[in-house]
Design brief:
Metal Binding Protein, Guanine Nucleotide Exchange Factor, Chain A; globular; 17% helix; single chain; six-stranded antiparallel β-sheet; alpha+beta
Length: 162
Amino acid sequence: MKNIVYLLIALSILSCKGEGQNTQTKVNPAKPMTEKIIKTDEEWKKVLSPEQFEVLRKKGTEMPFSGKYYLHKGKGIYVCAACGEELFRSETKFDAGCGWPSFSDVVDSSKVVYTKDKSAGMVRTEITCAKCGGHLGHVFDDGPAPSGLRYCINSVSIEFKK
């Protein structure tokens, strides 16, 4: 059953506007990193829902088209659901048709960490919160101008603030 879920997720990702893979690492050395939050799994389980824990701490993925922010159109900022770090502005959100909230840019490149991900039979670039290490989703190079990037994010990994 788990293999079927991975297959459905892979097909959803590939059915988005493009199939490009972003392999570049975006680093902003001029901006200092924020202080990291380090907690044990038991500590995270006390503050996160089971679904948030599975995605943010265990690198899971919510089912496509199921997240509360997939079609969300409010004006504001999206923050990490685990630590509150500001990650995405609503002005950069767009509908990529892939089933997950998509953004064309981050608030600041020092707020996320980019890592090559070879899981689920694909090569992608995973993004995690620089402050708490929570898994957010993946970034692809098939987004709109000017960045050309598509940050494909799990709704459960973020919260919206007006």
